[in-house]
Write a structure and sequence with these properties.
seven-stranded parallel sheet; 10% strand
């Protein structure tokens, strides 16, 4: 069929034509003859009908419709329209642009008795004057819908493509996107279309008609005269008829649509209801703007784009990706987290290795949370509610340490909420092979994999070796790249020669240069390794990190370098250095480490665990801002916060007394090179001639494998895992426990099994040990089932152990200590409670100074001295140990050491000054800080332990209060401010003295005003503190709303 005409079958006996229509028809035929086929012979009134297959082609409006109301000759539709017009006096102002309809949309209407009735509607309607007229349109639409149900594929196949396309659009125009919308919603959608046009569209239609047909002036329609709806519909049908019909079969198009719908349904199923809400990887443009605002990131690296668009991520598969340090791994994880929170509306768990990194990440992401409407919750130390609050509206991002993450997953599993976690992100995935913490991480991931089939796991690391094992364990895809934004060059220094690490060289090294630096004889003795020469090549213009084997070596190297630096170094940024010294002095309550006092004027400081958290944080800020140009540090800095440098120097290939591992080496040298600042980074490993071969093996060896740690430390990991499986009801029989064990990393590495033992044997041994120690029991069976079918139950003690995350090695000891405490709990002082919450694992790190021990004992009150006798350490024992006398009555050394540590905690709570307490006990302030943090975390565990045992009810309220004191260790008025992430004691004091005494006041503070009010507070820090305060306030408000709604909720089981 050619365009411009339509085949019309004319039935007999119905040839009526008005004079106006006839005359119009003659003019129309004259115009159409140039592009339409010649008309066939028409039937007279007495002529026989034509062959039904024969059709007549017409190109004009009147020839096409003549005296008929519709294509099929049915008069019902237009008769109804005439009736409506007559009833209401005038027709509605329908203005239908047939030309635009020919290119865009068409609608099909049918009556139940007709074969086909088709006409096109205009894209928009100028107005609908009465509710009755709108009701008419709705009635027409309902007739249209009812008739469509009667159609089959053969009828649809004969329709023009524009009509099929309009079926969907007409649905939206009449009733809106939601088919269940009420009348008000339908009126809104219709009016939305009406508002888009004006009466000018009538003029456009008339003008188009003139341009196409060029009629005489006398034949033009009068714009002031309103057309009847009947005429307008005919005009619309004419335009619809002129629409070129698609040459493609409609049945084929429908089949293609069906296939497309099935494909879309499959994609939706695998995509877990992913909602694309913007152009930035499915996220709104605001996310991209926030990255520029908060991070200064305008564009992603190519590898980041490739990774984010991986097909495996779209299919919700687990993913492991590995790149060198500073490659931008974290940004990819954060974008995936935002996709989960905003697009899929699911909670997310992010597991990080250390408390400091958790606090840094919470502070960084709180700004995004406030802008985008999600919560960021900290789970580190004693912080974090277990189980987490179930939020009504907002989704939560849980940022946790490895240990807290495990407790969080346990609580979600127990409460049937594990599927609320849509995504779990693990940073430093290689830590799964590092001792007891690695075993906890393995347990956490195995439980998620087993309990939730909808939770996606993303793991990232810069140092992965046996990726195949991890892929099999996590059922994950793997992505890797060697991309690094700044090139890294590795060197090894032996004597005066510096060699570049070269994999292509025969011996692995290529000579680079000879160190040419004039040393005096005295300087050569002080600095035989030429550290001063290597450092001064880059400082003060660029930054430098020197990794040392021990904490003491860090301090010595910093002082040595300062002794031989020129005085010019002191003049650089002198005022800012003075401010730094003043801040550190205030942090330490008027005291300052003498080493730092001597080194900071030169722009040098040391960084290790001997510093308090406040001191480390302030030194890190000064280094990042360029006030300090060199840090001497231990290996802990490499795995902690990101502090890059132009040059990284490794003082020796040792960590403490052990030779360095490849993973540690890679972590340290990965700090070399600052993206956007340096064009290259370099690392220099200083080695002695005797270690040359070991160093060659180190730099060229592959990374260490990540091996399961479940069997390390006397099977502590697997025992704890099996106990929690029974407690969480993940497994109830030995067979089910074994089935779970087959899904762990341990099962993927059979080489770790003891000789001549299978995984089943190891599992059975763990079950037997738990039963023998009263943590598990077998439920009596009434039938003669085999032994391995017996159901297992957790005992009350076992329940308390796994709920409190208590190390099973100390479980019995803790129970005995708590039980003994009930016999004579001394509450006149907090010393007894502090003893009960002193961590058992800190005892091994304690070597009491007996003179100090005896002195501190004598300063206790008589009631507090009674605590020592109650726990089993009499005064005579301490006195004899201090005087060096022989001891007849033996006392458990672990109890004596634990009591000594409780003395430290007791002094700390009384004075709240870590520096003075460290001096009093002749220990490092870093050790005191570590003890305090460990005690805060352990007290929380003991509290959960007691909550599961009825006989320890008295401890519940007492331990809750002591745990809070240990967590903050400040005066009560500072605690609300200390709850804000990133606010430590020194900053809390500043804020409090500046008038920001409550959380609400701080959350509503203006960052610009805060910068002016608080001494030496940068804008970035101010924005981060305010964002964190707002986030914490929002969390508390959400929790209270949840509690109120829970109280008011009507129980569903009320009759």
């Amino acid at each position: 069929m050619e365009s411009g005409g339509v085949a019309v079958k004319r039935p007999r006996g119905r040839r009526r034509r008005s004079g106006r229509a006839a005359s119009a028809g003659k003019r129309s035929r004259g115009r159409a003859c140039s592009h339409s086929p010649p008309p066939c012979k028409k039937l007279g009134s007495g002529e026989a009908p034509e062959d039904p297959e024969h059709t007549e082609y017409n190109g004009s409006e009147d020839d096409m419709f003549g005296d008929y109301d519709s294509f099929s000759g049915n008069t019902s539709l237009l008769a109804e329209i005439d009736f409506v017009e007559q009833r209401h006096g005038q027709p509605p102002d329908f203005v239908l642009d047939s030309k635009s309809l020919g290119n865009k949309t068409a609608v099909q209407l049918q009556s139940t008795n007709s074969v086909e009735q088709t006409f096109s509607f205009a894209e928009c309607v100028t107005s609908i004057r009465s509710g009755t007229e709108h009701d008419f349109l709705r009635t027409t639409k309902e007739q249209h819908d009812s008739c469509l149900k009667l159609q089959d594929g053969d009828v649809l196949e004969s329709l023009p493509s524009s009509q099929l396309l309009f079926l969907k659009q007409s649905e939206e125009c009449f009733v809106g996107p939601n088919t269940t919308a009420d009348k008000k919603q339908r009126d809104y959608h219709v009016n939305g279309c009406l508002d888009k046009t004006s009466d000018q569209s009538h003029c456009h239609e008339t003008e188009d008609y003139k341009n196409e047909s060029k009629p005489s002036t006398s034949t033009l329609p009068d714009p002031s005269r309103r057309k009847s709806l009947k005429d307008l519909l005919k005009s619309a049908m004419t335009g619809n008829a002129r629409v070129p019909t698609s040459l493609v079969s409609k049945s084929k198009e429908l089949k293609a649509v069906a296939v497309s719908e099935e494909t879309g349904l499959a994609e939706k199923t695998t995509d877990a209801a992913f909602v694309d809400i913007g152009p930035f990887y499915g996220l709104p443009t605001k996310v991209k703007e926030l990255l520029v605002k908060f991070r200064g990131i305008e564009n992603l690296y190519d590898w980041q784009h490739d990774c984010l668009t991986l097909e495996s991520l779209k299919q919700r598969k687990n993913l492991i990706y590995s790149l060198p340090t500073s490659g931008g791994k974290t940004l990819v994880a954060e974008i995936l987290i935002l996709q989960e929170l905003l697009c899929r509306q699911m909670d997310v768990l992010m597991i990080l290795p250390y408390v400091a990194i958790v606090q840094e990440k919470v502070g960084n992401l709180s700004s995004f949370g406030m802008e985008l409407g999600f919560l960021v919750e900290e789970y580190a130390g004693s912080k974090g509610k277990i189980p987490p609050v179930k939020r009504r509206l907002k989704k939560s991002l849980y940022v946790s340490t490895i240990e807290k993450g495990h407790s969080l997953v346990n609580s979600l599993t127990e409460n049937g909420r594990i599927c609320d976690l849509g995504l779990v992100v693990v940073d430093e995935l290689h830590m799964i092979g590092e001792g007891s913490r690695g075993a906890i991480l393995e347990m956490t991931l195995a439980k998620i994999l087993y309990a939730s089939k909808t939770t996606q796991i993303i793991g990232m690391s810069a140092t992965l070796s046996n990726v195949g094992d991890l892929q099999q364990f996590l059922k994950a895809e793997y992505y890797t790249s060697n991309f690094r934004p700044v090139e890294l060059k590795e060197y090894v220094k032996i004597r005066d020669s510096i060699f570049e690490v070269d994999n292509t060289a025969e011996n692995g090294f290529t000579f680079s240069r000879l160190l040419d630096y004039k040393y005096s004889s005295s300087l050569q003795k002080m600095d035989p390794d030429h550290l001063i020469a290597l450092a001064t090549e880059v400082i003060p213009k660029f930054s430098c990190l020197i990794f040392c084997p021990t904490k003491k070596n860090c301090e010595n190297v910093a002082e040595t370098i300062c002794k031989y630096l020129k005085r010019d170094y002191k003049t650089l940024r002198e005022r800012e250095k003075r401010d730094l010294i003043e801040d550190l002095t205030n942090i330490c309550n008027g005291r300052l480490c003498p080493v730092l006092k001597r080194t900071i004027p030169f722009g040098i400081a040391y960084h290790h665990s001997g510093l308090t958290s406040d001191e480390r944080k302030r030194i890190e800020e000064a280094y990042s801002s360029g006030v300090l140009c060199l840090l001497t540090c231990t290996s802990t800095l490499a795995a902690g916060v990101n502090l890059p440098a132009r040059r990284v120097i490794l003082r020796a290939p040792y960590v403490a007394t052990e030779f360095m591992k490849k993973n540690q080496y890679k972590q340290m040298i990965g700090r070399a090179g600052r993206a956007g600042i340096d064009s290259a980074g370099e690392s220099i490993l200083i080695a002695q001639e005797k270690d040359k071969q070991l160093v060659r093996n180190l730099v060229h060896s592959p990374l260490e494998s990540c091996s399961s740690s479940l069997l390390l430390e006397c099977d502590r990991g697997i025992r704890s895992l099996v106990l929690s499986l029974i407690g969480l009801k993940i497994a109830a029989t030995p067979e089910e426990v074994y089935h779970f064990m087959c899904s762990t990393l341990f099962s993927v590495q059979p080489q770790l099994l003891p000789k001549e033992k299978s995984l089943w044997d190891v599992t059975e041994e763990a079950l037997q040990w738990l039963k023998q120690n009263g943590l598990l029991k077998e439920r009596a069976s009434c039938d003669n089932e085999p032994h391995f079918h017996h159901h297992l139950e957790i005992t009350r003690l076992g329940q308390a152990a796994y709920k409190g995350s208590i190390d099973l090695a100390y479980c019995d000891t803790l129970y005995a200590d708590l039980k003994k405490g009930l016999e004579g709990l001394i509450l006149e002082s907090c010393l007894h409670l502090l003893y009960l919450t002193t961590p058992y694992d800190m005892v091994a790190q304690c070597s009491p100074n007996w003179m100090i021990y005896f002195k501190q004992y004598n300063q206790l009150t008589p009631v507090e001295q009674q605590v020592a006798a109650t726990v089993g350490v009499p005064e005579s024992f301490i006195a004899k140990k201090a005087s060096g006398q022989a001891i007849r009555k033996d006392v458990d050394s672990s109890i004596a050491s634990r009591l000594y540590l409780s003395f430290v905690l007791h002094a700390l709570l009384k004075e709240t000054n870590i520096w003075s307490v460290a001096e009093k006990f002749n220990t490092s302030r870093g050790f005191v800080q570590t003890l305090l943090n460990s005690a805060a975390s352990f007290s929380s565990s003991v509290l959960h332990f007691c909550e599961e045992l009825d006989e320890f009810w008295v401890y519940k309220a007492l331990l809750a209060e002591i745990s809070k004191k240990l967590t903050y260790c400040v005066k009560a008025e500072l605690i609300p401010l200390m709850e804000v992430t990133g606010v430590l004691e020194a900053r809390a004091k500043q804020l409090y003295s500046s008038g920001y005494k409550t959380l609400a006041r701080l959350a509503n503070a203006n960052p610009e005003v805060l910068v002016k009010t608080v001494h030496r507070l940068s804008r970035r820090q101010a924005r981060q503190i305010v964002s964190s305060a707002k986030m914490l306030l929002a969390e508390k408000a959400e929790a209270l709303q949840e509690e109120a709604e829970e109280l008011l909720r009507i129980p569903v089981d009320i009759p």
